[in-house]
Amino acid sequence: MKITPKRCTAKGRLAEDRPVAPTDERLGDGQHADHFVLCPEDLEKGRVEPLRTKYIHEKCGTVTTMPALCAETYAVQPEYYGSTFCCGCKDYFPVGENGEFVWDDGSGQKVGTRRPTAAKGEA
Predict the structure, then answer these.
(1) Where does residue 95 rank: exposed (0-12), middle (13-18), buried (19+ CB within 10 A)?
(2) Where are the domains of the chain?
(3) How do the pLDDT tens digits run along the chain, 123 residues long?
(4) Could you give the 3-state DSSP secondary structure of residue 26?
(5) How far, in Å, CA of 44 to CA of 24, rounded?
(6) What gap in Å lies between CA 55 and CA 39, rounded to an integer?
(7) Which partner from 56, 91, 95, 102 sits 20 to 30 angstroms from 108, CA to CA?
(8) pTM
(9) Are 83 and 21 in contact (CB under 8 A)?
């Protein structure tokens, strides 16, 4: 039986079960006003990927900086999100192996994936 971790929000609330974002409210650029993140007890389990805050949208070349708790969530559970926001296109696009974003660290690694060594339990 798989245990699903609780979902919290970047604004520090325990999240109700919603499909996309904890709120329908949007910022002026189109980004959700709040984001799902791992709860503190899940973040404490430790990172499996480095903490990275910037990514590049491969379609338009824009570098976007994400909120700190979203970055922490990616570092602990890279597969947590199914999409992320592009500040250039002002919309959300897929992440993961077939996603449209790479980390802005020169690695070429897709956002939402694990490095091969990280998949074997190394950080």
Answers:
(1) buried
(2) 7-119
(3) 444 556 677 766 666 665 567 677 888 888 888 888 998 999 999 999 999 999 999 999 999 999 999 999 999 999 999 999 999 999 999 999 999 999 999 999 999 999 987 444 555
(4) strand
(5) 29
(6) 23
(7) 91
(8) 0.82
(9) no
